[in-house]
Amino acid sequence: MENNYLILKDKRKLGYTEYGTKKAYPIIYCHGSQSSSLEMHYDLSFAINNNLRIIAIDRPGHGDSDFNPEGSIKSFANDTHQLIKHLNIDEFSVLGMSAGAPFAMGIANYLPKKPRFLGIVSGFAPLNNETQKVLNKDVRLLLKMAKSFPIFLKLMLKVQNWQLKKNPKSALKNFLKIMSEPDQEILKNKAVINVIEKMFTRAFKNGSQGVAYEISKILVQDWGFKTNEIAIPTFIWHGDMDNNVPKEWAMKTTNEIQNSRLKVYPNEGHLIIFKNAEEIFKTLVSPKGN
Known about the structure:
By secondary structure, the chain is α/β, with parallel strands linked by helices. The chain is built from twelve helices and eight strands. The protein has an eight-stranded mixed beta sheet, with helices on both faces. β5, α3 and β6 form a beta-alpha-beta unit. α5 crosses α10. The mean pLDDT is 94.
C-alpha cells in the first residue's frame, strides 16, 4: 500500500492510495460514502497473485483530497483524467463500490478515452420517486433529509465527526448498525473492522464538509448523465440481502446499461466485496464468461 497525492490544475490536492503491483494492469477504485482511499480488502494477496494495480482515489473533501465547492460527478471524472495522465496510464478499468458507483459511471461516461470495463459493486442508483420506494426506511429518511433539508444532514455529520474523534469504535458501531445479518457476520472479523475504522476515520480527516456536500449536492441530485448513456461493457455485483442498497437498484441499472451483466449473490449483503474481491477484480481484467 502506498499513499500519494497529485496537485491538480486548479491547485487542489488529490489524494490516492495504490495497492498491488506497480507495473500491473490498473483498476481505478471509487470508494463508498463516508469513506476514503483506505477502503480495500484486508488481504491484498488477491491483487498480488493476479497482477493487479488498484488505484483508490480520495474524493474531494475526503481523506487527503481538498474540498471542491463546485464539485460534481463530471468534475471528479476530470480529476481522475488528470491523475491517469500523471500516472501515464493508457488502458484501465474502473470499479465503484456503493455510493462510489455514480462516480465510476461518470468516469465511464465522461473520459475521452473510455475504460476497458466498468464494475459496480452494491451500487447506488439515481434517486427518484420510483427508486426510493424500495429503500430501507432508515436509508430513505437519510437521503430525503439530504435532498430536502441538507442543513440537518450537515449537523448530523458534524456530530458524527465529533463522536469519531472522541470514540471511533462507538461511532463506527452506530454507523454499522443498519447492516444486514450477513454483513454482521462479516463484521465479526476484526481485520474487516480494522479496515472500516481506518477508511472511516480518514474520510473525516479534514472535517465533515466534503462528506455532507457529496451526499446532499451530488448523490441525491441529478447526476448530469443517464445510466443508459454508458456504452462500455459493465459488470454488476449485488447481494440479495443488501440492507443499504436494494438489489432492485442493481436490476434497474442492469436494464438501463445495454452491455451489462448482473450477478446476484444469494444470502449476502452490502459487503460482498470482502468475500468476492478476487472474482470481482479479476473480471475487470479478463471476464472469461463471468
